Amino acid sequence: MCISTNIIKSKYEKSEDIKKRVKSLKKVLEGKKITIIGHDNIDVDATLSAILMSKVLTFLGIENEFCILEKVKEDDTYDIIMEVFNIDMKKFEKVSESSERYLLLLDHYETIHEGKVIACIDHHPNQAQKEYDFIYSRNSSATAFLIYKIMKEVNFPIGVEEAKMIILAMAVDTAAFRSSKAIPEEVIKAQNLAKEFCLDYDSLEKVAFCLTPIEKLTIEEIISNGQKWYVYNGIKVGSAYVQLYDLPEKEIINNWLEKLFEKRKETKSGLLVFIIFDMKNSITYEYHFTKENIEKFVKKGILSRGKDIMPLIEKQFLNKYL
Ligand SMILES: [Mn+2]
Question: How far apart are the CA of 108 and the centre of ligand 1, in A?
Answer without folding.
Answer: 8
